Please model this.
Amino acid sequence: MAKSSSGKKGAHELDQSIVTLRPEEAVAKVFDPIKQARDTLDRLAKVLEPMGHLVQFADVFEPIRKFQEELADVAAAFEPIKGLRGPLENLANRFEPMRTFQTQLEQMSAAFHTQLVKLAAAMEPATAFQDQLQLLVKAFEPAKSLEHRFVELSRAFGGGDESDKPAEGDAPGRRSRSPRDRA
Model:
């Protein structure tokens, strides 16, 4: 095949020197343009293992969820007391010993509010992480489709069994590769 008029090799044009290479070397040259992308995917495989440990952090949510449910019951029980604030203030203005009770009730209410605001703020890193995961899911959406298409293409060149496809959940770095691919 000849070079295009611009002097660059097109997607369907191969350098004549490929003909003199061994078949494995000639095919490797065809894949040279995506070597950088392949290296990036290999680095991604190394990131997946530590990310698997993040699941342990998710265990914290169950006790927090249970606590939230219990606190919701307390808040529901506290609701009628909030309705007494006006009459209680009226009574506290007329009967001094009730002022202490009213003040304690207000302080307890404010303390609950403060603690709940702090707990909500403590959840911010988890929600930010969840947002980042959603962005990652969108960014990596093409991966499964491309993987499937490459497996199908590989079958066109021989092999046609399911052993071509990596097992579900396998990380790319765990797949067996030929010694040439590892270099």
Remarks:
- DSSP finds nine helices and no strands in the chain.
- Residues 58-123 form one domain.
- The longest helix spans residues 96-122.
